[in-house]
């Protein structure tokens, strides 16, 4: 971690509620131990948790969250979304006007797939003034972490200090891909090291308590390197977090949100601190 990122992370740690360290599995599903059945190119943030949720029911918790004010566009905890081509054409000026401060946008998967809507989404979000970051849907069964990180960095995952670009994110879900915990740890670290070498930023990690605990054994090796984006669809005031992470930086709290400018449901996300810390993370400043 660079000194700037470490400073930002330490400041974030002092301002967040870390949630329960017991890391109970997300209620939307459990991680499976086998390889993902998600076809190449069809993965998106939350797809693996829906797939693994054998008794998944439609999520009605968004109304509870809205009532608590968690979905309100407050400066204290900026709210965001994550999108891919599944959301179709997005009117980003309407998204911005609705109070959305940041967005994670799918860029790549494995070493051959680029989301067909990525370029349009990334450009139009920027032009609308939405802080955005690209994400890579991991496929540890298909190639090395280093090769996937290189592909991601060359196809949307790069970073620049322009007030509107977050570091890239590694999306880990959908099963353990036949890997042991130690092999998965090595794959993740391989991805991280290559991405850091190419962009000089620490990649964000998106995962759920159930996936991280099952597939890495609750490994603590990334807690000092990567900010955590936790998937935990719950009406609680803070999320459960994976073992090995002391606190969360972003929280995907529902998969059934609604936002002006987007047709249909969209994942909703929340930042752990205020807008100044979000900008510090984007720009790699203390």
UniProtKB/TrEMBL annotation:
It holds the Pfam family Glyco_hydro_25. SUPFAM superfamilies: (Trans)glycosidases. Keywords: Glycosidase, Hydrolase, Signal. It comes from the Bacteria. It catalyses: Hydrolysis of (1->4)-beta-linkages between N-acetylmuramic acid and N-acetyl-D-glucosamine residues in a peptidoglycan and between N-acetyl-D-glucosamine residues in chitodextrins. Residues 1-23 form the signal peptide. Its EC number is 3.2.1.17. The keyword Hydrolase applies. Belongs to the glycosyl hydrolase 25 family. This is Lysozyme.
